[in-house]
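Issue: ligand-bound run for zinc ion - logging full I/O for the record.

Environment: standard queue, default settings, no custom constraints.

Inputs:
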Amino acid sequence: MSIKTAQGSGLALCPKCHKLNNIRQCSGKNVRLQCIRCHGLFYPRKPYSLQYTLAWNFAALIAFIPANIYPIMILYSMGIGEPNTILSGIGEFIDLGLYPIAVIIFTASIIVPLIKIIGLFLLVYRVHTGVRLRPDKHSKFYHALEFLGPWSMLDVFVVALLVAVVELGFITSVAAGPAINYFTLTVIFTMIAANSFDPRLLWDKKQGCENAKEENDY
Amino acid sequence: MIKTKNAKQLVACQQCDALYDTPILKQGQSAKCTRCGSILAERKVDSIERSFYWSLAGIMLSAPAILLPLMGVTLVGQYHHASLLDCILALIDRGFFMIATLVFLFTLAVPVVRLLGAFYITYSFKFNRLKPSLLHFFRAFHYLDNWAMLNVFMLGIVVSMYKLLDDTELSINMGLLAFILWLICSTMASSTLDQDYIWQELENEFVD
Ligand SMILES: [Zn+2]
Ligand SMILES: [Zn+2]
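Outputs:
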């Protein structure tokens, strides 16, 4: 069973205006096209999608390490500074008994970036090898990753708000720590990595595998 | 020439590239891809009118939402409050230029530009002022799709309130109300905007 795809029919979808364009006959490769409707330049599939996803993903992983080691926020009270890392900030909420808030921050700042990084590595691996590829499930997983991405910025916004609001001179003030730079980079890199991944490759690979199998059977 | 005619009656899934005949939809209906389940095409109800008024309201709310203080703290008789703009300025003061730039982009520049863009597009449709440059304008508009983070900032406000409640006296200012309304307006302005319809109309007008 094979569903007709745009690519299989010599058509390509413009990613901006969703217009179907004819692929020029001469070459079957991923050539650059100009959309007849919006005049934007695009490729039938994102070029070097897996390579870009991997590269941004590695960058995100590397930035995630200092993001957790350095303090993200320093709380000054009567001139004495108390540095807080992402994890110790969560610990404070648990000490105060504010479990829902602790869970929200833990999810947004630790679980989501990690799941995004690991998940994208997994998707790239699956598409590359085609082993146990389930496009229906994997594409849903990918969309969940894409949706969750921006929510990781939560901690950055919290720190920005606290720095601006808690400014009572000597009595108490909040300063941002170096980890905030690394953490923001992690979030941006994972968002770009997810953006670089082309979910259509999941289906292409599956169909490619099935076609090869059918040829072997006969 | 037969080929281009073919392409007009077909539609492909953005997520899995499956090819379908263009579904005929009434307002408020949407079609789903049978292979991957993502939305293939949809017709939104009264899109131009609704998006026009939501974006107009959003533009008017921008200034109070950005400039009015969101919340303030009081401790041993001292009071200090901050607005969205103050957050960005405070980060610049402390030398965190990258974070300041990104917070500025995600919570201020992108939402404002998106509102203005949606307003301009719907205004042109409502009063029949279509220009060929709208094709380029609307394409550029799509680059900002993923980068507005007002909803995340809202959650950030809630979390920092909990953090401050513990050992200071917290007060909520008018800016918070303006910000919540602004968030609602910009969400509604972009979710009521029917992109398929706008592209189709622009194509009928300017692409032969
Ligand atoms: Zn296009
Ligand atoms: Zn699909």
